[in-house]
Amino acid sequence: MTRTSSLTELVTLCKLGLHGTLMMPIAALERRATWSQLMLVTGLNLLVQFLSDLFKTGSNGEFVAQGLPAALFILPVVLFAAWALGKWSAQPELSLLLATTFGAIAVPIDIAYHVSLWTAERGRLSPGAADILLYAGFYVAMLWYSLAAGVAAARLLALPPTRWLAAVPIALVVIGMPLALVYRDPTLWRPVADPVADANYQRQRNTLLREDILYLQPALLDRQLAALKAGRSGIVDLYFVGMAGFADQDVFMKEVQSVTTLFNQRFDTLGRSIMLINNPKTAAQQPIASVTSLERSLKRIGDLMNRDEDILFLFLTSHGSKDHRFSLEFGAMQFHDLEPQRLQAMLDASGIRHRVIVVSACYSGGFVETLKNPHSLIITAAAADRNSFGCSHENDFTYFGQAYFNEALRQTDSFITAFDLAQPVIAAREKEQDFDSSNPQIFIGQAIRAPLARFGRQLATNRVNRPSANGDKPPAPRHPAL
Q1: Hey, what's the torsion of the CAs at 150, 151, 155, 159, to 10 degrees?
Q2: pTM for this one?
């Protein structure tokens, strides 16, 4: 094959792919195709992937041979689809032509998809619009490809109009579904790895595997539990437990640390507060956040508190899943995620009656139905079917944590009023960022209102009676408690 004929074939295949993508009448390569042409369009698909990776990464990168199987995944898919459609139409001799056409159609659709990725990642779009383009673009491309392949197959097979409608669903099943549902990473060019940074990252993730840290953990938890003070008769004591579940992002650690300080200073929990944190930076000072450590903490608090008077404030912050699992993760350690049913069982077993439970995670509204009872106040950062936002590594608070704890609870002693204050602040910030509303949830049990009201009056009285540094009495909060 001469260079001129190769170039001519390349142009012909590109026209074939473009016409097929736009669902225009297509030239059928004189109703024949060769294996060389199929390999040529396969190479074009690889080239599109490689050039896209190169454009995003720059020349200072390295070839990723491990990405080749994923990038070539389209080849067996189009071969099977071509065989299936040829067999279905009783024209198996056209299978190679169909496979070549399908491969050619994938080229312009791949280009359009990679342009949409670049626009989502680098374009001047709002975060919400970028997320829609980033996630929806993939499935739109798969649907577009399946539809174009089905129409091309109907034309090449000269199907009667009554069978056109069947060709598209077949293409959707044998082409679209495998490409959309099978996870693969076709990256062929990536930045050169920094061995020092990689080693540091892995060392941090494996902090708990160090022998000294591993054996230190039970002692850290025992020390915190032993330091807890017993409830005082005639006084409503608030016990605080803060749990940061996800070790790879500092925001959860920083949020629990800040909220613990706030509660110790403002809500009189000093000596009655526990921090459970998954993070390499605190593994030698704080007990880890696990189902076991939380269960032991709740049991200890239940034994110490006056169950008729005292209140538990449980704050959980981490990632959450659509099936309502609260993530507990620390590198290589295999932790169980926290499920609403397990948390409910732990609380019931502890004997703790009055409960304020705040869950800050995506889909955290899924905890409400299981945990609600007359003695509980339950607040979640999102509805059961919604994401929450702000869990970036560099942040000090999530969006919910900033609005509820760092702003609202500095203005009021009421956990319920704080929710009312925080909700519009969160909504405004999400709207500004063009995010879908997280729709925070609240459930107020009737029997929890009286203990919270007593606690609020007690805080107000203590503040009035406590002289400030200059001898004056501090002002009451703008929003008194219940």
Answers
A1: 60
A2: 0.68
